[in-house]
Amino acid sequence: MLQVLNMVGKVRIRFKIEVIDNACLVARAAHLMTHGEFAEGYSLIRDMQGSDFLTALRMLAEQEVMVKKLSDFKEKHKREKSESVAALLTRAAEEGDEEAISLLAGVPWKGELKN
Fold this sequence. Notes:
By secondary structure, the chain is mostly helical. It has helices at residues 2-33, 38-45, 50-77, 85-94, 98-105. The chain has a domain at 2-63.
């Protein structure tokens, strides 16, 4: 039973690594394609399966959303211009700020507006 669990864990890790690799390829391809090197960018993703490509795009979109949430949080709560987002989130979470706690946990904040 332990061997089966170890094997399942290794498969999950391998899958996550592949997703991250694909997301990096898609990001690099998008950069190249939008900066005058379309053929080189396209060659990076040409052989990628459609489902892998969509998973990579979804991951990049989620990352972009999280960066926006962190940026908005910093703008709402900044005290010192030099204070890092990490320090700001940590301080706010220690003070019981639910949004900060949620952002640190990487889950959507309950108080945010739904589309």
